[in-house]
Design a protein that fits this description.
- The structure holds 2 protein chains of 2 kinds.
- By secondary structure, chain A is α/β, with parallel strands linked by helices.
- Chain A is built from 22 helices and 20 strands.
- In chain A, strands 3-2-4-5-7-6 form a 6-stranded parallel β-sheet, with helices on both faces. Chain A has a 6-stranded parallel β-sheet with strand order 11-10-9-12-13-14, with helices on both faces. Chain A has a 6-stranded parallel β-sheet with strand order 16-15-17-18-20-19, sandwiched between helices.
- In chain A, helix 3 packs across helix 18, helix 8 packs across helix 14 and helix 16 packs across helix 22.
- In chain A, about 55% of the residues are buried.
- By secondary structure, chain B is α+β, with helices and mostly antiparallel strands.
- Helix content of chain B is about 30%, strand content about 40%.
- The chains are: A alpha/beta, B alpha+beta.
- The structure holds flavin-adenine dinucleotide, thiamine diphosphate (TPP) and magnesium ion.
- Flavin-adenine dinucleotide binds next to helix 9, helix 12 and helix 17 of chain A.
- The site of flavin-adenine dinucleotide has 37 residues of chain A, from helix 9, helix 12 and helix 17.
Chain lengths: ~575, ~160
C-alpha cells in the first residue's frame, strides 16, 4: 500500500522509537503535523521558538544518550533553528532536524518562506539532505539517525519539500544501512595501544586529560577503572565533567581557562599525557606555543582523526571509540608485566598536593552578599549531587562547573563549544522529558535567561517542574569580568538595566517565583523549592555583582599563567 | 608546499559545495579545483591543487575524509604522479604573427582548433608550468583570451584511486 511522504516521516520516527519531537508548525510541514496528529506513539512538544526546539532535542540527547529530534518549518523556522543546530554541532550531539521546504517546483524561485536550508546549515551539521523524491524518505531518515549517532556524533538536517510530503510511496524502513563513503573506525590499533601502554609505564609525571568523548562514548566505567589502576591524576574539560567521579581523590577538577590551579599546573608539567576524547581546545590549553614542551609525550584517543594533531602534535595517535580502546588498554595492562615507576609517581603526587593546597576555588564565605559559588555549593548539598544540571553561558556556567561536583556522566549539560546563551532552559526541558522522575535544575544568569524566556510557557503546557537557579548579578558578568581585567573597567553595555521582576514574571506564566537576597536565606529557599516536586520554581538569587571567576588564564596565555584570587 | 590531492566522492548534488565550503570555512588555499563524473556515474573525481605546511595538509586530508560524501582521498604528491591541464588560448594572428603563432603552437605541441582571418584558437595540454611557459613565450598583446581547466592528476603505474 502506498502512503504519503508525511506519513512515511512519522512511521520512520516510530521505527526509530522516537518518544518526543520538539517542534513548531508552519506551511511547509503541515502534512507532517497532520500525520503526527493522527497517531500517539510519537509525542510532539510545542516550543515557543525554533531555537528552543533544537536545544530541547539536544538536551534530551545529552541526558539520554539517544538521538534528539526537532521539526521546524521552512524559511524563518529554519533560520531560527540554526543557533540550536550550530550549538549541537560544536559539542558533537546527535540530533536529527527535520525541516520543511517549499515545493520542489518552487525551489530557486525566491518562493514564500524559501531559504537554501542545505546551504545555510552545511557548515554547522555533520551532514544534511534534501529529499526530492518521496521514495527516498525512508532510506534518508535511516541514514540520518545512523549518521547522527555513530562515529563522532552530530546534527543531521533532513530537508523535505512540501510536495514530497504529499506524494505517495510504499513504506519500507531499511533494517540497516551501509554507506561506502562513511565507515568510522571504532577498534583502536593494537600496536598503538601497546606503544601507549609502554609510555604510560615509563612516565614519571603522568597526567590523564579527559573530555566530552568519554561522556559521548559512555566510557565512564572503563575510564574509572583505568585511572584507579594506574593511580595517575585525572582532569576533565568542561564537556567531560561527570565522566569521572568528582569526589575521587585522583580527580584534580576541571582544567583550562577557569580550571583549578592543580589541574592546569599538572597538565603543563606532566611528562606523559594521556588525552581521551578531548580536543585541546583553546579554552583548555590556551596558546599552543606556551603549552608545547619538547620532552612531553602525548597519547591521544579520539574517534575523529581530525581532532588528533590539530592544535597540538601528538606522539601516539589512537583512532577509535573510547570505550573499545580503553577496554583493550585495560586488557593489555592486566596481562603486561611492566612495572610503574612508583617512586616518581609518589614525588609527582606530593607536588600536586602542594598545588592543590593553594585552594584555587576559595571565595569569601563571610560576605554579607550572596556569593554565587555558595549558592551552587548549597544546591549541590540540597540535591545530594544527584540532579541533572543544565546551564546557560557566563560566569554562572563556570561556577556551576566548578562547584557542583558531578559524580555521573550526562548530568552536566551545557553549551561549551558555541557558548550559546539561551541554551539552559530549553535544554532542561529536553532533559526533564528524558527523565521525568528526576530533578532537573537550570543554572542561569539574568541575561542568558532572557534569551529564551518564552519557554516558561512550554514548561507550563507540559508541566515540566524545572528548578531555575538565576544567579542575578545585574550584569553580563562574564563580559563585565573581561572589561574589568582587560578594558580598564569600562563596562560598555554589560549592565543589565530594566530587568523584569522575575518572581512576577514566573507567576505570570503560572509558575512559582522566589527572590532570595540574603546569604542566610539561601539554604531554606532551596529546601523549599525542591520540596515542590511538581512545580517549576524560579529562584532569583540576588548575588554579589562584583564577584569574578577564578582562576583565570587570560586569552593567548599559557596554562601556568593563571590569575588567582 | 604545493600538493595535488585526488578525491573520489559521491556524485550527489551539493557534494562540490561541501568541499569548496570546507576549504573556505577553514581558510585553506585552493589553487585550482576540477571535478567531473567518472566511468562509474555514481562517483565524481576531483583534483585539488593546494598549498600549506605539513600540518595544514594533514588536516586537509583528514577534513576531506570526514565529509560524509567523500569516498576516498589520496595526496598524489606523496608519490609518482602525472598532472595535466588543458588551456585554450585565442591569439591574434595577422601579419607576421600568423606564422609566428603557428610555430609557437608547434613548439609547445599545441593544436590550432579554430581559425579566422584575424585569430587562432590554440589548444594546449601539459603541466601547469608548461602552460605558463607558453604564455610567457608569446607577447602579451597577441593574447586575446585564455581559459584553463586547472590540473587533473593521476598516480603512476599501479597507484590507482578506485573503490
Ligand atoms: C564561557 C566559557 C568558558 C569556558 N571555559 C572552559 C574551561 O575553563 N575549561 C574547559 O575545559 N572548557 C571551557 N569551555 C568549553 C570549551 O569552549 C570547549 O567546549 C571544551 O573545552 C571542549 O571540550 P572537549 O575537549 O572535551 O571536546 P568536546 O567538544 O566534548 O569534543 C569531544 C571530543 O571527543 C571525541 N569523541 C566523541 N565521541 C567519541 C567516542 N565515542 N570515542 C572517542 N572519542 C570521541 C570527538 O571527536 C571530540 O574530539 C568554556 C566555554 C565557555 C562558553
Ligand atoms: C547568544 C550569545 N550572545 C552573546 C554571548 C557573549 N556572552 C558570553 S557570557 C555573556 C554574559 C552572560 O550574562 P549572564 O547570563 O547574566 O551570566 P553571568 O556571566 O552574569 O553569570 C555574554 C553576553 C554569548 N555567549 N551568546
Ligand atoms: Mg549576569
Amino acid at each position: 500500500m502506498e502512503i504519503s511522504g508525511a506519513e512515511i516521516v512519522v512511521r520512520c520516527l516510530q521505527a526509530e522509537n522516537v518518544e518526543h519531537v520538539f517542534g513548531y508548525p508552519g506551511g511547509a510541514v503541515l502534512f507532517i503535523y497532520d500525520e503526527l496528529f493522527k497517531q500517539n506513539r510519537v509525542k510532539h512538544v510545542l516550543v515557543r521558538h525554533e531555537q528552543a526546539a533544537v536545544h530541547a532535542a539536544d538536551g534530551y540527547a545529552r541526558a539520554s544518550g539517544r538521538v534528539g529530534v526537532a521539526l521546524v518549518t521552512s524559511g524563518p523556522g529554519v533560520t531560527n533553528a540554526v543557533t540550536g543546530i550550530a550549538t549541537a554541532y560544536m559539542d558533537s550531539i546527535p540530533v536529527v532536524i527535520i525541516t520543511g521546504q517549499v515545493p520542489t517546483h518552487a525551489i530557486g524561485q525566491d518562493a514564500f518562506q524559501e531559504v537554501d536550508t542545505v546551504g545555510i546549515t552545511r557548515p554547522c551539521v555533520k551532514h544534511n539532505f534534501l529529499v526530492k523524491d518521496v521514495r527516498d524518505i525512508a532510506a534518508t531518515m535511516k541514514k540520518a539517525f545512523y549518521l547522527a549517532a555513530s562515529g563522532r556524533p552530530g546534527p543531521i538536517v533532513v530537508d523535505i519539500p512540501k510536495d514530497v510530503t504529499a506524494a505517495k510511496a510504499r513504506f519500507d524502513y531499511p533494517e540497516s544501512i551501509g554507506m561506502r563513503s562513511y565507515n568510522p573506525v571504532t577498534k583502536g590499533h593494537g600496536g598503538q595501544i601497546k606503544k601507549a601502554l609502554s609510555l604510560l609505564m615509563k612516565a614519571e609525571r603522568p597526567m590523564i586529560y579527559t573530555g566530552g568523548g568519554v561522556v559521548l562514548g559512555d566510557a565512564t566505567k572503563e575510564l574509572t577503572q583505568l585511572v584507579r589502576k594506574l593511580g595517575f591524576p585525572c582532569t576533565s574539560t568542561l564537556m567531560g565533567l561527570g565522566g569521572f567521579p568528582a569526589s575521587d581523590a585522583q580527580f584534580l577538577g576541571m582544567l583550562g581557562m577557569h580550571g583549578t590551579y592543580e589541574a592546569n599546573m599538572a597538565m603543563q608539567h606532566c611528562d606523559v599525557l594521556l588525552a581521551i576524547g578531548a580536543r585541546f581546545d583553546d579554552r583548555v590549553i590556551g596558546n599552543p606555543k606556551h603549552f608545547f614542551d619538547e620532552k612531553r609525550k602525548i597519547i591521544h584517543i579520539d574517534i575523529d582523526p581530525s581532532s588528533i594533531s590539530k592544535r597540538v602534535r601528538v606522539d601516539v595517535p589512537i583512532v577509535g571509540d573510547v570505550r573499545d580502546v580503553l577496554q583493550e588498554l585495560l586488557k593489555q595492562l592486566g596481562s603486561g608485566s611492566a612495572k610503574q615507576d612508583a617512586a616518581s609517581l609518589k614525588t609527582w603526587w606530593a607536588q600536586i598536593e602542594l598545588w592543590r593546597a593553594r585552594d584555587s576555588l576559595k571565595y569569601d564565605r563571610a560576605s554579607p552578599l550572596i556569593k554565587p559559588q555558595f549558592v551552587i555549593q548549597k544546591l549541590h548539598e540540597t540535591t545530594r549531587g544527584e540532579a541533572y544540571v543544565t546551564s546557560d553561558v557566563g560566569q554562572h556556567q563556570m561556577w556551576a562547573a566548578q562547584f557542583y561536583k558531578f559524580e555521573k556522566p550526562r548530568r552536566w549539560i551545557n553549551s561549551g563549544g558555541l557558548g550559546t546563551m539561551g541554551f539552559g532552559m530549553p535544554a532542561a526541558m529536553g532533559v526533564q522529558l528524558a527523565h521525568p522522575k528526576d530533578t532537573v535544575v537550570c543554572v542561569t544568569g539574568e541575561s542568558s535567561i532572557m534569551m529564551c524566556i518564552q519557554e516558561l510557557s512550554t514548561c507550563k503546557q507540559y508541566r515540566l517542574p524545572l528548578k531555575i537557579v538565576n544567579l542575578n548579578n545585574r550584569y553580563m558578568g562574564m563580559v563585565r569580568q573581561w572589561q574589568e581585567f582587560f578594558h580598564g573597567n569600562r563596562y560598555a553595555e554589560s549592565y543589565m538595566d530594566a530587568l523584569p521582576d522575575f518572581v512576577r514574571l514566573a507567576e505570570s506564566f503560572g509558575h512559582v517565583g522566589m527572590r532570595i537576597e540574603k546569604p542566610g536565606d539561601v539554604e531554606a529557599a532551596l529546601a523549599e523549592a525542591f520540596k515542590r516536586k511538581s512545580d517549576l520554581v524560579f529562584m532569583d538569587f540576588i548575588t554579589d555583582q562584583a564577584e569574578n571567576v577564578y582562576p583565570m588564564i587570560p586569552g593567548g596565555k599559557g596554562l601556568s599563567e593563571m590569575i588567582l584570587v | 608546499m604545493r600538493h595535488i590531492i585526488s578525491v573520489l566522492l559521491e556524485n550527489e548534488p551539493g557534494a562540490l559545495s561541501r568541499v569548496s565550503g570546507l576549504f573556505s570555512a577553514r581558510g585553506y588555499n585552493i589553487e585550482s579545483l576540477t571535478v567531473a563524473p567518472t566511468e562509474d556515474a555514481t562517483l565524481s573525481r576531483m583534483t585539488i591543487v593546494t598549498s600549506g605546511s605539513d600540518d595544514v595538509i594533514e588536516q586537509i586530508n583528514k577534513q576531506l575524509n570526514k565529509l560524509v560524501d567523500v569516498v576516498k582521498v589520496i595526496d598524489l604528491s606523496e608519490g609518482d604522479h602525472i598532472e595535466r591541464e588543458l588551456m585554450l588560448v585565442k591569439v591574434r594572428a595577422v601579419g607576421k604573427d600568423r606564422e609566428e603563432m603557428k610555430r609557437m603552437a608547434d613548439i609547445f605541441r599545441g593544436r590550432i582548433i579554430d581559425v579566422t582571418e584575424r585569430d587562432y584558437t590554440i589548444e594546449l595540454t601539459g603541466s601547469g608550468s608548461k602552460l605558463d611557459a607558453f604564455l610567457k613565450a608569446v607577447s602579451r598583446e597577441v593574447i586575446l583570451e585564455t581559459v584553463r581547466t586547472g590540473a587533473s592528476g593521476i598516480g603512476r603505474g599501479d597507484r590507482v584511486l578506485k573503490l
